Amino acid sequence: MHIPHNLFKRRLREGGQQFGAWHTMGGGQQAELLAAAGYDWVLIDSEHGAMEVTDVLPVLQGLSGFPDCAPVVRIAENDTALIKRHLDQGAQTLMVPMVHSAQAARAAVAAMRYAPEGARGMNGITRASRFGAVSDYVAQAASELCLIVQIESRAGMDALEEIAAVPGVDAIFIGPADLAADMGYPGNLAAPEVEAAVLDGFARLKALDMPSGIITLDEAALRRYIAAGSRFTALGIDAAWLMTAARASLARFQDI
């Protein structure tokens, strides 16, 4: 049996745009709905979404039935043990939040690699290795794992080139909400200074040929960021979409 191919990582190498959706509400069926809608990737949010490590597993299992949709797991923090657990249960693409330095990026890379290159603990009987059926999993794992580091602070933006140069970092995701807050504009992602910083980040990453991505609920801003170089772009959040639709439906009947 062969190691599963990482569709998201392959598409990053090929270039082009990948449109994603943010899954925060938990449950395999909700994520399956997003995959069935046609998104290229679904972000399983274990940082702000109400999902622990074990809650992510049924979502991964549900998405496995959609071969054209790649799961991406955002973990809660840059922690070696946490990364190990998500990888062992079959996540192949991880997004690590709050990476402010090259040192933090190197720690994330090490957590995804077995010794002697890294610090990932050994276990040959996991879902990632098809419970041992992939006999060469340890040797092949790194080739199909994908690490996205999330830059969401002024320190991270200042160290952008150093972070991008860390071997094993496959892509960089700019988090505009925390970046805005760190810049002194909490809740105001549309502040000109924030947008200028994001656009500058995309230009710098594009010059390095480093794949970059973003999420915002401002469609006009999304179009500007795509034009600037965003290559894996999240178009919305499940909870936000549901709330918008629910409010709109109620509003249409409140005058009866």
Helix and strand layout, with pairings?
Layout: H1 7-14, E1 18-23, H2 28-36, E2 41-45, H3 53-63, E3 70-74, H4 80-88, E4 93-96, H5 102-111, H6 137-144, E5 146-151, H7 154-158, H8 160-164, E6 171-174, H9 176-182, H10 192-207, E7 212-215, H11 219-228, E8 232-237, H12 238-251
Helix pairs in contact: 2-3, 4-5, 10-11
- Helix and strand content put the structural class at alpha/beta
Shape summary: globular
User: Which radius of gyration do the C-alpha atoms yield?
Assistant: 18 Å
Q: SSE order, as H and E?
A: HEHEHEHEHHEHHEHHEHEH
The helicity comes to 40-55%
Low-confidence stretches: none
Number of strands: 8
Largest sheet: 8 strands, parallel, barrel
Structural commentary:
The structure is a single chain. The protein has 256 residues and is an alpha/beta fold. The protein is 44% helix and 16% strand. It contains 12 helices and 8 strands. It has helices spanning 7-14, 28-36, 53-63, 80-88, 102-111, 137-144, 154-158, 160-164, 176-182, 192-207, 219-228, 238-251; strands at 18-23, 41-45, 70-74, 93-96, 146-151, 171-174, 212-215, 232-237. The protein has an 8-stranded parallel β-barrel, surrounded by 9 helices. The protein is globular. It starts with 6 loop residues before the first helix and ends in a 5-residue tail after the last helix. 37% of the residues are buried.
Characterize this entry briefly.
This protein has 256 residues and is of the alpha/beta class. It has helices at 7-14, 28-36, 53-63, 80-88, 102-111, 137-144, 154-158, 160-164, 176-182, 192-207, 219-228, 238-251; strands spanning 18-23, 41-45, 70-74, 93-96, 146-151, 171-174, 212-215, 232-237. An 8-stranded parallel barrel has the order 1-2-3-4-5-6-7-8, surrounded by 9 helices.
